[in-house]
Amino acid sequence: MTDSEHGNLAIWDGTQRGRYEVWFLKLNHRASGTALWLRYTLLSPVDGKGDPVAEVWGIFFDARDPKRNLAIKETLPAASAQIGRGPFSVRIGESELTNTTARGVLCRGADEIRWDLRWDPNPETFEPFPIEGMYRAPIPKTKWNSPNLDVRVRGAFGVHGETYPCDGEPGQQSHLWGTKSADQWAWAHCNAFEEGGAVFEGLSARIRLGPVKLPSLTVLHLRSEGEVHLFNSVLQLLTNKSIAGLERWAFSGENDRYRLHGTVTANLADFVGVKYTDPDGEPLYCHNTKVASCDLALEEPTGGAWYPIQKLTSRGTTAFEWVSRTPDPRVEIRI
C-alpha cells in the first residue's frame, strides 16, 4: 500500500458516536473556466442528535456565468456506505472514491452531475501539522491531511447536459476527520498558477477550548521549483499573520530562510454556500468557491530587507473557503 493510500484509510470504525470523516476531490477545468468539488462524508452524531449518515456532495462552479453554479447532495444511512481498507475505497450510493479514481452521479429533478475521473496518486501524503502527535492527541479536534495534494486529473464530468473532458486538469484530493470543527477558518489551495509548477495550500483557523476562543492558528505551505517551503512549526502557527474575510484573505509567514506572503480574493457571485453540521449538532456555514484568484510572493533577506525571488499568480483557479458559525446573508446556502 502506498503512503498516499494509507493516508486515505478510514478512521471511523463504523460504531463510534460523535465523529465525522470527509474525503474531497476538487479540480479546475481551465479551458471552460469551471471547477468541480466532490465531497464524500460520514457523520456519526453524538447520542440523541440523530442517526449516522453518509453523504455525497457535488458542487459545480462556472466563473464565466455564476448563475450556472450547481450544488446537489445525496444523504443515505451510514450503514449503507461501503468502506474498503485494503485497498482504500468509500462507496456511497452510486458514487465511489478510491486513491486513484472517482466515479458517481447525483440527480435532483432535472439537474444532474456525473463524473468519471482518475489520476496518478502522489507518492506521499502531505501532513500539515508540525508534530505527529497532533494526529493522535485530542487537540486539535479536527485532523487533516492531503494524500493527493497535487494531481493531474483525466476522464470527464458532466453538468447541465454538457460534458467537460479532462486531460491533465489540476486537482487535489484530501482527507479530514474529527469530533468537532474549528469555530472559524479560511482555507485556500492552488496548483494552477500562470507560472506553472507550484502548489500552495494554507489554513487559518480559530478553535475553542471550552468557552475560550483562541487566536487564529495559521499553516502555510508552498512547493515550487523543486523545493518545499513550510511555515508550520509550533511557533509559526502562532506568529504567521492572517486577516481573513469572505472576499479576501491576506496572510504571511516566515521561516529560517524565506518569507511568504499572499492574498486570495474572490467575487461574491462565485461563492456557493453549504451547511456543515458538527457531531454535537452545532451548524457551520461554508462559503466556498473553486474559481478565486491568488497572488503569492516568496522572498529572501538581502541587505537587511526582503527581496522577492518568485511571484505566483492565479486567476480563477484557486480554491477558497470562508467558514463560520453564522452564514453570510450575501451567499445563498445551496445544500
Description:
The longest helix has 6 residues. The chain starts with a helix and ends in an 11-residue tail after the last strand. It has one domain: AttH-like domain (AttH-like fold). A hairpin with a 2-residue loop joins strand 22 and strand 23. It contains two helices and 23 strands. It has 335 residues and is mainly beta.
Give the rounded overall mean pLDDT. 95
Tell me how many strands there are.
Answer: 23
The largest beta-sheet arranges its strands as: 4-3-2-1-11-10-9-8-7-6-5
| CATH class (first level) name | Mainly Beta
Order of helices and strands: HEEEEEEEEEEEEEEEEEHEEEEEE
Give the proportion of residues in helices.
Answer: under 10%
The CATH architecture category equals Beta Barrel
What's the CATH H-level superfamily name?
AttH-like domain
Shape: globular
SSE class? mainly beta
CATH topology: AttH-like fold
Assembly state:
single chain
Radius of gyration: 19 Å
Low-confidence stretches: none
**How much of the polypeptide forms β-strand, as a percent range?**
over 45%
Number of domains: 1
Biggest sheet, open or closed, and with what strands and sense? 11 strands, antiparallel
Secondary structure tally, helices? 2
- What gap, in angstroms, lies between the N and C termini? 35 Å
